Amino acid sequence: MLRRPHVLAFPYPAQGHVIPLLEISQCLVKHGVKVTFLNTDYNHKRVVNALGQNNYIGDQIKLVSIPDGMEPEGDRNDLGMLTKTMVRVMPEKLEELIENINRLENEKITCVVADGSMGWVMEVAEKMKLRRAAFWPAAAGLLALSFSVQRFLDDGIVDDNGTPVKQQMIQLAPTMAAIHSSKLVWACIGDFNTQKIVFDFTIDNNETIKKAERLICNSTYDLEPGALDLIPEFLPIGPLLSSNRLGNSAGYFWPEDSTCLKWLDQQQQNSVIYVAFGRLWLEFHNGRCEQWGAFPVLAVLCRPIPE
What we know:
Belongs to the UDP-glycosyltransferase family. With 307 residues, the chain is of the alpha/beta class.
């Protein structure tokens, strides 16, 4: 009897990374693949608590977790600390988890699908002789910018710490929006030490992700043709929406809040655009709403909510 393929899915520990990879996992299950979905201990508890009695994930996806290396009360919004502890602690824990699963289960893990911002997972999977794929859940434009770090260094746009040396607009392709050098993802964190950690991690990740045998991203040529032309090795499979498979989304860190439905019901049909800012809510809070002028805005912000 043939055994099912068994995929270990491992997202970066942030809300906007967990949901789309879990969406991929649910699609894989529909094609007869067994999935073990791995979160950090901290986020695993949040996902399970948010699910409550709603079994949106189903019985074919097993939820497991490993420690992220931080103390239970640690600040996981501290990207510098989270990045350092993850890289130091989690590779060994990941290897132990895979070994335990493969020792105890008949359907052993055969493939790892991990977040594209955690290339070190590809190193562990390669060491354990597992098939491996990297998934980028965010915009392809951000991925293209991350892959352009060496070019920015060579052109003197940023220094070895990621600090912008030249204050200028950057446009990687004619059909891509230009971005100012001060708004590169690592440069607008605000804290130099964290900036340095994230910048160095980006450089390292650009190398380790090359160990993936398949590269996929949550985008489409209809939305980002220029960016995707810059990273042809990535196959666009987006947008990943639960509505595309007639199912329910899962993987949220907080219980569902329906208080916005009354406001939404008062708007004209097809008049609302959904924008989730996630960790970038501070950028939104600092005057970004003004760009929409008189348009009504329903902001989706990452907790804690700003005053």
